[in-house]
Please model this.
Amino acid sequence: MLKFLTAGESHGKCLTAILEGFPSGIEVSSGHINTDLERRQGGYGRGGRMKIEKDRVEITAGVRHGKTLASPISMFIENKDWVNWLDIMSPDESGEGAAVTRPRPGHADLAGGLKYNHKDLRNILERSSARETAARVAVGAVSKRLLHSFGINVYSWVSGIGEVFWDGSGRYSGFDEIFAEAEVSDVRCPDKKASEKMKKAIDVAKKNGDSIGGVFEVVVTGVPPGLGSHVQWDRKLDGRLAQALMSIQAIKGVEAGIGFAAGSMPGSKTHDEIYYTSAKVSSGNGFWPRHPRFYRKTNNAGGIEGGMSNGEPIVLRAVMKPIPTLYKPLRSVDIITKKPFAASVERSDTCAVPAAAIVAEAAVAFTLADVFLEKTGGDSAVEIERNYKGYLKQLAEF
Ligand SMILES: Cc1cc2nc3c(=O)[nH]c(=O)nc-3n(C[C@H](O)[C@H](O)[C@H](O)COP(=O)(O)O)c2cc1C
Model:
């Protein structure tokens, strides 16, 4: 139902995102998008680039008087740093700057140079850079507006940086409070003591000219049962969410619910037993969870069974590897001279796990908006609401 494309080089003029298939009548403003762009730029451990960029979106199509039109939504984010790169990044003139010939281990430089036959690795690194994630965050912010208007909310927090872990990770309730704490932490960790330890771990990595990765969680509440499907591999919700998360730069693993821990637990302790309540209660916003309903007292499955949401909150976890650009030199080989070298760099993040969590919210929001539209159909907010309420009634009467 939904599609998006992004375009833009890291030091080019701008990033562009086009979101297609979005229904009419959803309230969207540049303010909503800018809030998430700003959240992406925060976090302890970021490099100099974030001091230069103050991302602001300009909506150039698809929204009128604060509401979506159902035409493609086009968004433009200027790269403030571009003025310093006019010559090097000019689309027309042949520029001055020296070619980049020294690939960084862990980055796209070498594989991309070989694949596209680029002897100047800048032609690869400009697009593989996670600067692109600003455009994805804009798409995610619009997707969140759709979800939010039907009582579905997306949260994220950081549960580990380096070897420091927050022991509250894996809790499956009290998400509003956990999220509120994460929002005021420099590292997006809901626990103050763990946050301080994480900051120290980042300081140590920085002092050593090194970088550091970590783990974050994304939780979605208000998700009704039946999003995604068991019938075909590419319709499975867990598969689609994993793809969305794995597509984020430097994400190397994804878990749903207890994830890898399930491999060492017996089935009797893994699967979430099924209960039923006939009480007639509805959530504050009138959407899901509505009773009577089937429910679980545990959520080891992370809200997904058989490739479909099961009505419990969706709980995902992902790991980000350490940033590949290091002040501490790593061995590599110059692609022109074929000679080994060990180079240090001037500007890079030491840790971007808190920012990656915001990008992950966006990736998850887009995927959830897509499956939600598949289930509810509808070209306008009014039609979706009518269809969704009909489905909720069907669930209550099941
Ligand atoms: C929010 C965010 C910020 C990042 N910042 C940097 C950075 O400053 N320097 C760097 O080398 N890599 C950074 N990365 C990681 C690289 O973009 C990523 O490792 C690279 O594109 C190679 O892709 P892969 O790790 O998925 O294989 C960042 C990733 C994210 C999600």
The first helix runs from residue 30 to 41. The longest strand covers residues 153-161. The two ends are 27 Å apart (CA to CA). The chain has a mean pLDDT of 94.
